[in-house]
Amino acid sequence: MRHSDSTLLHTWGYLMSSTQIDIKPRFRLLDGLRLFAALSVLVYHYCAYKGAPWPEPPKDTFAFVSRYAAYGALGVQMFFVISGFVILMSARGKSLGAFISSRVSRLYPAYWAAVLACAALFLFVAPGRFRTPDPQTILVNLTMMQTAVGARHLDGVYWTLWVELLFYLLIGALIAKLDKESVVLGFAFAWPVIALIGDHASVGFIVSFAQPRYASLFAAGMALYLIHAHGHSLLRWLLFGFNALIATYETTQHEVLGSMAKNTDQHLSSLMSIGLMAVILGLVALVTVTPLAHMGPRWLSYAGALTYPLYLFHEVWGWWLISLLGPHMNKWLVLACAAALAVILAVLVERFVERPARRTLRRQLAKSFPARSPLKRATHGVKAEGGAPEIASRSSTSHTVSLSTD
């Protein structure tokens, strides 16, 4: 082959690779599931959680609805399964620096806004209505490290972010090996097993770090990504089923029959929990590894972008409005007003905080890490694990998803 032809092919390969990296196909129905999960948690906190400041306990205020709204907390389990899928997808083919930049720029701008707004609510807008936080608690909440240092969350919903951060840390540690399917398969099997062993043996560090209650949820999402990226196989489906069964047991035994029943004063059903977990896992599978993957109306993409700020702002701000209006207005109108306030805050934060801050923060963080060479970017992801060329559409870079978690 002549040198000019070789150069032309190399240039063409680089351009095609660059094009694939920029292409971000929307998983619109997955966006829709994320919004559904956030709304489920909202309904749980407004209509079932016993701490909601209605004049009467929610189980009495919303007698019939509350029995079913009590299961809305399982929206968190759906979040974690989706996160396992999306984070593995977005991490594959990235350098550690790019992964860190994308995660920090995605998580922190809206979170900082939520913490500062929450502190303002407690200290200035409604002093005395909530427990007044001390300055050091506010400051450590801004780091997202409050669980690590034993401080309380300003808003109860922040606990899930610590679990997410631990998952990101594990993925970051494996970032250089994520293109090897055998590594991901082994990790998605070993992580939940080690977490369960640590839990059974009461090894505090393993329990705190490996998160036995939630590890299998993330691992189930990772298994779905492997199916999406590499196709259906018995081993990949067995990995998904293995983690799905563990996740169902852990969720039912410790979450539904444990903390959720306690937090709602409801007698919850293990059969209902098993059924709902099957629905959650089945829906995520349906919109990621079937022809439905890239279907759905365009507005779901925007709905997905609202999910994170909606989750961050709905609890204390909704409770504040409920405490103001609850004694004086119809409960359903109050409920609608609280939900509307949460959505309005989510829209404002997404538009005026997340969009501009995410772009700026990611760009500035990226400058802190050494750039990968064009040759590596051009050739990355176009070979299978054994070194044979892969079809570009099956490579991880061509599937980078632009969800609100990305």
Q: Major sheet, described briefly?
A: none
Number of DSSP-assigned strands: 0
Percent in helix: over 70%
The count of helical stretches stands at 17
Radius of gyration, in Å, reads 22 Å
From N to C, what is the helix and strand string?
HHHHHHHHHHHHHHHHH
Give the assembly state of these chains.
single chain
Alpha-carbon distance between the termini? Answer: 41 Å
In short:
The chain is mainly α and 406 residues long. It contains 17 helices and no strands.
Attribute tags:
disordered C terminus; disordered N terminus; mainly alpha; 70% helix
Walk me through this protein's architecture.
By secondary structure, this protein is mainly α. The chain has one domain (24-399). The protein is built from 17 helices and no strands. The chain has helices at 3-22, 28-47, 58-61, 63-69, 75-91, 96-125, 135-143, 146-149, 159-173, 181-200, 204-210, 215-230, 234-264, 270-286, 299-325, 331-366, 374-379. The longest helix is centred in the last third of the chain and has 36 residues, at 331-366. The protein starts with a helix and ends in a 27-residue tail after the last helix. The model is unreliable at 2-23 and 373-405 (pLDDT under 50).
